[in-house]
Amino acid sequence: MNSSRSLPLLLLTLCLWGWLETGSAAADSQEEGRILHYTCTMHPSVRSPVPGKCPICGMDLVPVHAHASSSRKPEETPLSGSPTPAAQGVSDQSTPKASPFFVPPERLQAIGVRTGVVERRRLMRELRAPAILAVDESKVVDINVKAGDGYVIKLYADYLWKGVRKGEKLATILSENWVQAQMDYIRAYRAWRRSLLIQKANPILLDQQFVHIRNRIRVWDLTDAQIRELETYAWSMSTNDVRTGKGIRGTFDLLSPISGHVHEKNVVEGMRFSAGQTLFRLVNLSRIWVLAQFSEDQAPFISEGQSCEVTLPALPGERFRSSIDFMQPHLTEAVRRLQVRVILPNPGHKLRPGMYADVTAHLDYGVQLAVQSDAVIPTGRRFVVFVDHGGGHLEPRFVQLGEKLDDEYQVLAGLHEGEQVVTGANFLIDAESRVQGALQIWSGEQPAEGTEGPGKPAPTAPPPAGRHHHQGMPRMPGM
């Protein structure tokens, strides 16, 4: 009997609860979209019950709409997707609160809002530096006479940057020591040749003595061909000629040891020089150095052996791939830059010292979650992104970001793959969110309605067109 009476009571309770929920949902639906007041996007403290102009800046007042979540207190609205305080590095008390807000879709279209997708993509850091082409210092050869003083009788490499081939004459040299060096070598060579014909007790000693004499004459930078020519003449001389020195020349030709260009010229015809004095410097341009200057913030990402690409304004469309061969151990203090060296082959001498170039290297971070940099608004120590839920429903969200790589940020926390974020007109959306009280980042308290700040009355909006007020002109001081 009791169970039959309780069943109708239970059904009545469920119907009453469903009617109340339906009424509440309908009330929320009617409440959402209702205009609460009008305000200025640049001065949120200005509030007016009717549309008009801002009394401070003259901009049109915009409507502030109510939404279903407006009845909640901001601190009761959890921040969806935001990183934990430990990940942010700040305490929970200092983390600002945010709540979704609504902007009519036609207004979003009018202010030119654009959106992008948060997605995983391969992230690359581009490292770019200006550079200049320079001579390969390992290909520079100093030309001098090491064994004695002398005179330049005839000059063949007679102007700077002249091209020379290996074995080509650079100058004809006259030296007194050269005559004595020839006589010593001729005697040693003739004695060594005779020792091969006459068996003696110790031929090895004669060989060692002859090698010593040959090494001494090599100090004059003679080629093997020049030494063989001298040996042929020495064996054809008579004993009397060897004794008197008849036919011994006092001059010899200074030959180029490499093919290249005259990089430095310190001699003129008829000039006297000292032993070891630099007469020429020759350079071979079969390889070229590229000296690049990377900025201080890029220096930690540069390493020897790293692949790079070289482009030149003088050779548009051409790219030269190489690797970093050397890094300076310290920064250039005057410009705070790190100089690195890249070596390029130079067939045909197309690359010339003094040309400007650009060196580009890439650092691969792999596939990671990324967001466009246009979607990020810095707010001091934090970053805000506006997530678009569609239909004019936007949510400001604090995110934790990693490195900025070109036009993208690494996303460490706060966003999920596939979410839509606002990438254009962010400053207008930011102003709208402040107007609606969705984002509290400047202080933990919102100013009370009707006040602009502590101790300051809020300016009121002017009356709408068509209404007239009959207040008199404000009294001037002293009247």
Helix and strand topology:
Blueprint: H1 2-31, E1 35-39, E2 47-48, E3 62-65, H2 85-88, E4 101-102, H3 105-110, E5 114-117, E6 119-135, E7 140-143, E8 150-155, E9 163-164, E10 169-174, H4 176-197, H5 203-217, H6 224-236, H7 239-244, E11 251-255, E12 260-265, E13 272-273, E14 280-283, E15 287-295, E16 307-311, E17 319-327, E18 337-345, E19 356-372, E20 377-378, E21 383-388, E22 393-405, E23 408-413, E24 420-424, H8 426-435, E25 451-453, E26 456-457
Antiparallel strand pairs: 1-2, 1-3, 4-22, 5-24, 6-15, 6-19, 7-14, 8-10, 8-13, 9-12, 10-11, 12-14, 15-18, 16-17, 16-19, 17-18, 19-23, 20-21, 21-22, 22-23, 25-26
Describe this structure in words.
The chain is α+β, with helices and mostly antiparallel strands. The chain contains 8 helices and 26 strands. The strands form 6 sheets. The chain has a 6-stranded antiparallel beta barrel. The chain has a 4-stranded antiparallel β-sheet with strand order 7-14-12-9, with no helix packed on it. Strands 11-10-8-13 form a 4-stranded antiparallel β-sheet. Strand 16 (307-311) and strand 17 form a beta hairpin. The radius of gyration is 45 Å and the shape is rod-shaped. The chain starts with a helix and ends in a 22-residue tail after the last strand. Mean pLDDT is 78; it is low at 68-93 and 441-479.
